[in-house]
Amino acid sequence: MQYITLSHQLEENSPVHFNLRKPKIVPNSQITKGDGYNSFIITAENHSGTHIDAPGHFIEGGKTISEYQPYELIYGNPLILDVRKGPNEIIELQDINEINLNHVDCLLFRTGFEVYHDEHPEKYLTQNPGISPEAVYWIRQNFQGIHCLGIDTISMSSYQNPEPGRQAHLNAFMDDEKLGKPLLLIEDMKLGSIKTEELDWVMVVPWQIKGIDSAPCTVIAKLS
Q1: 149, 186 in Cβ contact below 8 A?
Q2: Residue 48 and residue 14: Cα distance in Å, rounded?
Q3: The model's pTM
Q4: Which residue ranges of the chain lie beneath pLDDT 50?
Q5: pLDDT digit string (tens) for 38-60?
Q6: How far is residue 73 from each of residues 101, 172, 215, measured CA to CA in Å?
Q7: In this structure, CATH architecture of domain 2-11+45-223
Q8: How far is it, in rounded angstroms, from Cα 145 to Cα 142?
Q9: N or C terminus of the chain: which is more exposed, having fewer CB within 10 Å?
Q10: In the 8-state DSSP scheme, what is residue 32?
Q11: 3-state class (DSSP) for residue 217
Q12: How far is CA 209 from the centre of its chain?
């Protein structure tokens, strides 16, 4: 039995979207300076690092991540789907429409673009693969047991293709009875070389901050 994290540690040099301020981690009280204890001041926008987007991110009045209960963030049937994509490429409907996703509740896309996270952060930020709005809509239409999507890129939205990326988010979050519950989206994941058959369950633990639309998170996985 083994437990691992599928999330990157947040650092000052963590790649974050260009519209966001870089994280700051500043020593405050420090034992080395004669203080009685250590403490730090952490400044980070709520879409920094590995984070989970909830409907409130794009939908006025949509459910915020702080409104989700713990049981809604535990997934007993996760699947890592290898969909290898190069710079600026999109996960299209034809990449997934012949795959049986019955019984899956959390679908994690492994594009392979994670390799640029540390070594080439500018490429990771500006040339990332994304997912098409048609693919997101098809998942919601046909597999309503899926409640969460994740990806090993900075965003579900390709930086070079912002409008399809915006629509993909809207398709994930819009409230439509015919499509089941809105999806949650985990971005900037660390999926590495884990074999999907090793995954037992996945649990997402967002920062507990009341009222925010989305939050940085720790993604914990149990391997069988």
Answers
A1: yes
A2: 8
A3: 0.96
A4: none
A5: 999 999 999 999 999 999 999 99
A6: 19, 16, 13
A7: 3-Layer(bba) Sandwich (3.50)
A8: 9
A9: N
A10: G
A11: strand
A12: 18
